[in-house]
Amino acid sequence: MTNVLHTAPFLPVPDPRPQDEPWPDMVWPIPPATMLVGRNLDLIPLNPREHAEPLFAALDDDRVWTHFQCRAANPVEFGDKLADRCARLGWHPWAVRLTRETQGFVPGSLGGMTAYIDANPHDACLEIGATAYSRVLWGTTVNAEAKLLLLTYAFENLNVGRVQLKTDTRNHRSQLAIARLGARYEGTIRRRYRRDDGTLRDVVMFSITADDWPEVRARLTNRVTGRSE
């Protein structure tokens, strides 16, 4: 028996902004020494060689690396992999430095990493990705505060019109975390990237636009300041 794919007729998507205005130029690149300062953490420029050892220690848990392809056997290899990705893929990486005691992390220690990736100045968009936190920081406000800093800088300093976030279709925890930020689900890109095991992963795509930003900013600010869960 032959399987036949039945689909509903496609209806063209209408333009939601038919009277749109030209968007201002995106500011890029970011000055090398830029640091984003928050209430409980800072995002500092990540140096793959200098920060490899403390980040390797913070992230040394198999659960952290289930869906993240930068696993290494030791700090030196980890630093090499980070340096390669930053140079080859154009990442702008940040180290997450805690400024208040959090789940056993003393002030000044590194609890994770994140990055701006796939920046496209011509189209005024970028992606937040390459994000990993120590397992003990999962479920805290660390992710919300880091995203608040990154999104604020993107929309209010870099003149970005769109920030996208994506994750493996198998990573349900990450999908829920991204949705909780206020990001909008846009669709699933099928068989887009190769996993470490050789399989091709489907990618779940979310975005936050400049139109969404005021509401998202209020939501994240409330979470960071404790005015909502």
Q: How would you portray this structure in words?
A:
The chain is α+β, with helices and mostly antiparallel strands and 229 residues long. It has a single domain (36-225), classed as Aminopeptidase (3-Layer(aba) Sandwich), CATH 3.40.630.30. Helices cover 28% and strands 27% of the residues. The protein is built from 5 helices and 8 strands. It has an 8-stranded mixed beta sheet, with helices on both faces. A hairpin with a 4-residue loop joins strand 4 and strand 5. Helix 3 (142-156) runs antiparallel to helix 5 (213-225). The N and C termini lie far apart (53 Å).
Characteristics:
alpha+beta; globular; Aminopeptidase; 229 residues; eight-stranded mixed sheet
Order of helices and strands: EEHHEEEHEHEEH
Instruction: Could you tell me the CATH topology label.
Output: Aminopeptidase
Number of alpha- plus pi-helical segments: 5
Q: What is the C-alpha radius of gyration, as a whole number of Å?
A: 19 Å
Q: For the largest sheet, list the strands in their spatial order.
A: 1-2-3-4-5-6-8-7
Helix content: 25-40%
Helix/sheet category? alpha+beta
Distance between the termini: 53 Å
Number of strands: 8
Principal-axis shape: globular
Total number of distinct structural domains: 1
Question: How large a portion of the residues is in β-strands, by DSSP E?
Answer: 25-35%
Major β-sheet annotation: 8 strands, mixed
**CATH homology superfamily:** Gcn5-related N-acetyltransferase (GNAT)
The CATH architecture comes to 3-Layer(aba) Sandwich
| Sequence stretches where pLDDT stays below 50 over 5 or more residues | none
Determine the mean pLDDT: 94
CATH class: Alpha Beta
